[in-house]
Amino acid sequence: EDQVTQSPEALRLQEGESSSLNCSYTVSGLRGLFWYRQDPGKGPEFLFTLYSAGEEKEKERLKATLTKKESFLHITAPKPEDSATYLCAVQAESGGYNKLIFGAGTRLAVHP
Amino acid sequence: DAGITQSPRHKVTETGTPVTLRCHQTENHRYMYWYRQDPGHGLRLIHYSYGVKDTDKGEVSDGYSVSRSKTEDFLLTLESATSSQTSVYFCATASGAHYGYTFGSGTRLTVV
Q: In the list A1, A4, A48, B61, which could disulfide-bond B57, CB 3.0-4.6 Å?
């Protein structure tokens, strides 16, 4: 069964304290791995897509990496405005029609 | 997101009543999806559409039906609402089979 697990469930950081969020997955053939950011009361907002092991993408203080079993979202020198829930999702070959399977998310709180 | 409108934004309904949620897009995207989001479960796929009048079930489709009579509208109906269907419902669209989703702002549904 295709599955996505994110850790930790919640993370509290001081402003400027770098860290990483983990997304491990078990899928029958990965077509793509997606990262989203979700603010309270809003829909998820697309951040990155990764397609193959070794691929990396960057946007401001965020950097996403992908291996054959997991992805990391690295946050460098975070600011309070980076506080949000970060969601990971995978598209599997067996999924068909671009169906994404989401993890439960990591709630990130960055304090001044 | 300006291209996807979900209505209503909030709704309280009684157990046993039918409820219809609407998703309207101006992106002309082929693929549309309905997800529900619950604490600890992340986003779970209810139904999806890969074209006008072409729909299929997701992982949590029991008690839900959908219709798509034109590209821009995707309706989700709870045939007889139950308390277990209290959730936040998100609509999403995608332009192609390997593209990330664009999400609406969500509908918070409470069944009492």
A: B61
Residue owning tokens 């998820």: A44
Gap from A29 CA to chain B (nearest CA, Å): 14
Do A2 and A28 contact (CB within 8 A), yes or no?
yes
Q: Are B67 and B75 in contact (CB under 8 A)?
A: yes
A22 touches chain B (CB under 8 A): no
* B42, B102, B104 member nearest A102 (Cβ): B42
Query: For residue range A55-65, what is the model confidence (pLDDT) as tens digits?
Result: 999 999 999 99
**Token pair for A53:** 């092991």
Is residue B54 within 8 A of residue B4, CB to CB? The reply is no
pLDDT given for residue A104 in this prediction: 94
B66 vs A29: which has the higher pLDDT? B66
Q: Indicate yes or no: CB of A46 within 8 angstroms of CB of B104.
A: no
Q: Give Cα B88 to chain centroid, integer Å.
A: 10
* Mean confidence (pLDDT) of chain B: 93
Tell me phi and psi for residue A79, to 5 degrees. -115, 160
Q: Yes or no: say if B92 and B100 are a contact pair by the CB < 8 Å rule.
A: no
Q: What whole-number distance in Å separates Cα of residue A80 and Cα of residue B47?
A: 36
Query: At residue A54, does pLDDT exceed 50?
Result: yes
